[in-house]
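REQUEST FORM: STRUCTURE PREDICTION
Request ID: SP-0412
Submitted by: Lab K.M.
Chain count: 1
Length (residues): 76
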Amino acid sequence: MKKALITGASSGLGLEIGRLLQKEEKTTIVNLSRKKSPFENIPIDLADNKQLLQALDVIKKKHSDFDLLVLNAGIM
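STATUS: Completed
RESULT:
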């Protein structure tokens, strides 16, 4: 099974990309976002460097690698 890391997969384009990959490609989706999603969620404010580093540590511990990276988050 493939794995994808998607930022901003809680809504809009990121959510639809995640759903399509999950359905068509049988892909495990990991979402980096402040909002919840139907995927494995790692809550984070991507504008906060400290939270980003903490999230990267969590990702390294839980997932050895990813097949796809989708950078879709809108940072305000």
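NOTES: The chain has one domain: 2-71.
Reviewed by: T.R.
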